[in-house]
């Protein structure tokens, strides 16, 4: 091996944990990027390592007529939990934020803020999760940034992902489009992610096997939109849970949304945790659940299409839209009474995503 | 879910409601006014709202939501004391989560935490004791609050700390007692209650006996009640039945949990560690004799009130708050002047807006707010017409 070959050798991260040197812009950082990031997020847009990804416009406009552009930061604690980790969350969360607008998600960026001392093994595991999640969702991670901060200045690792996608011309999803008579659908059990985080924190000494529902929803949404192109409202029910999304729809559309507690899919384990801790599954976070509002005559077709998709097997119709009282969400309780479901005040649980 | 869904069966509810409807005409008083039944406990209030029980009941029954939410009735001065303790650099201040948001005169524990105090949420006093063992160089204070329900676990934690010789653990004791408070409500001149839904978890600890005076001396029917919606409906039926039959007794609907003598080892632990205070200050209700407990001299080394100095000031409730009247059933939450205007769950002024178990927060979150606001506007209009 001659000296120029040695110089060109792909970098390999040394040591077992991240140090300030890995964020310094020097050789350690180059090694980190080449070994961990380039090794995983291998694609032709990232490979040149320019300061920006360069995307051919014609390839975008082939998909539709509007660009969807979004960003989200992920600070979940703990970073590993049953059913996923901060990496899967960072990819799927941003993919879903694009997809619920009707966009076909295409490209993501990835900004990491790492606390010194994070083990290289943990970082590798997180990046591998991101790689796998991106492959499953059919998106490419095309640009990135890494900063390392002193111990205590961040908690292990924070990730920001931004994403772009393209909205096909015939799709018009808006939270203000819910109309009286419309039907409300959900793609499965609520509260799994929130309950999984409670379990993973371990500070409640409650053991459970609930896995986070963290997954990309773009393929499910594609199936839904194929069966019901005129879907009125669509949003993923993350922080604040199903209750928050329904309230957002009711407020933006100036309608009443009535849901039936009996129809809400909640796992027995999640209900159990909620009963024990005094939490309400309606407010628990999800990372793979969407609420769709569709015209009544499309409801059955939409439900059937959703149920055929892996991410929508447990889909259900949970309620309907009516005129009054405006900007209100009402729950018909299993006991036969009714109550208002308001936005959450404060936090049921901090740092769930 | 087993052992839960059975107590939420809508068909059984219909049977109970029909039976209640059948009995009501036999009660003479209902021809002139609605019957007022008080559920003392915040847990009951929560169930009533969560399942929409009020709307299922006939109009001739009114539920009055009592002061049994220990977070709500915590006076501002005590919250200030908590903040002062939490802000000491050597202190790790541990608390149940729902106490974090209670406003003090300057800040809540949540704000104190944001400002740098080491405030940590725990789910049991034993977690706080563990924390003390793991942090021998810090002082761990547990913010003990709640009625008799939570007293045994705090008492046993103190006994454990004594046995283990832990020196850096103490309690800021804010435990309150049920019976003197029910008595204060019954003695109140504006009182017009017809019966009590008695707290199930408190009774689990204290047993049935302490409630006998309600029936014997004050001639009010009282039923010890569980926390599922059918428990509450069944108790309402039992109360209506007592009234219709002219009886005043202590009945135990929650017999699957509550025994006549209560939790004897728990009561022993309470008696060992705690003694009654001469009086204790309540948000909304003022000072009530013997309504709180403090730690006995023998456990002074675990008493944060003795170990640390704190402001210990009495701070009056905001003048516009009508929590006291709501607590006694004199007015409905939405009849308060500041309800949903100056006082909301985000910016609670009064005690009852603070925790989700408080009557006002329950109305605000679960009640039919637009309807309530319309009623409120109508009432204000009537009042302004009266004045002019």
Strand order of the biggest β-sheet of chain A? 8-10-7-11-9-12-13
How would you classify the helix and strand content of chain B by structural class? alpha/beta
What is the β-strand count of chain A?
A: 13
Instruction: Using the coordinates shown, work out and report the CATH topology of the largest domain in chain A.
Output: Phosphoribosyl-aminoimidazole Synthetase, Chain A, domain 2
Low-confidence stretches of chain B: none
User: Judging from the principal axes of the Cα atoms, what is the shape of chain A?
Assistant: globular
Order of helices and strands of chain B: HEHHEHEHEHEHEHEHHEHEHEEEEHHHH
CATH domain class of the largest domain in chain B: Alpha Beta
| Count of discrete structural domains of chain B | 3
Task: Using the coordinates above, name the CATH class of the largest domain in chain A.
Answer: Alpha Beta
Spatial extent as radius of gyration of chain A: 22 Å
Give the overall pLDDT of chain B as a whole number: 89
> What share of residues of chain A is helical?
25-40%
Ends distance of chain B: 58 Å
Instruction: Name the CATH homologous superfamily of the largest domain in chain B.
Output: HypD, alpha/beta domain 2
